[in-house]
User: What shape does this take?
Amino acid sequence: MNKLLEKLLNKLPFVIVFAHQKGGSGKSTICMNVSTELSKQFTTTFIDFDKLQQMTKYNNNREEPINSVVIKDERKLEQFLRNDKGLTVIDLGGYDSDLSRVVLLLADMIIIPMSDSDNDIDGFREFSHLIEKTFKIRTDSKAFILVNRVHHADKSTHRGLTKYVENTIFNVFDTVVRDNKLHTRLLSTGKNVVEKQFFSKPSKEIQSLVQEIIEKA
Ligand SMILES: Nc1ncnc2c1ncn2[C@@H]1O[C@H](COP(=O)(O)OP(=O)(O)OP(=O)(O)O)[C@@H](O)[C@H]1O
Ligand SMILES: [Mg+2]
Assistant: This one.
């Protein structure tokens, strides 16, 4: 078996959470792409805590929906995770609540999609304090920034964000997901970008991100 796959298999149960209090940074979009790709290799369950329920709608439109559970409160979430043996992927939505703080505490890997716009950085400053508090309790958890929705020729955003979080608890994925129209029609088609156009740039980026998630889990 592929050594990388084996590494994550040995870590199961494992919880990946897409989070950022800044709205519209790409949490649901990246979650749709990544969760359905990961589900091809691991027993995966999806939980939608985003108020807009976009991932749920996308999943319902899929030919082969991935397993999902509807959970409304912290107690039920803890109960579910206590019994689950696979990979759980959570779209946390852009809000702060008691439930979202518990979700962050239960995460093994937090993925924060963002760009270096003033709004994203400003939102991140506040959000990063929350994650830092969480990591005082969950010392084994990891947080990764994913540079998302940048111009196809942009090089400075990744460099800038890497410098920005230097010597902090945050890491930055090497993979950059660039602005591409293919990402804007996932929900209505029930297909991720790899399934839409395997040889496209967005597909290569998502495949690279999935590899990196497995490698760094
Ligand atoms: N890499 C990308 N290329 C092009 N469009 C993108 C990309 N990433 C996200 N988008 C678009 O940006 C918008 C916001 O993305 P998305 O809904 O995933 O953000 P979000 O963080 O889940 O927002 P919310 O905080 O409201 O839950 C959507 O219209 C989506 O199609
Ligand atoms: Mg969302």
The chain has one domain: 3-216. The pocket of adenosine-5'-triphosphate (ligand 1) is lined by residues 23-29, 50, 52, 54, 93-94, 148-149, 177, 179-180, 183-184 (CB under 6 Å). Residues 17 and 90 are 5 Å apart (CA to CA).
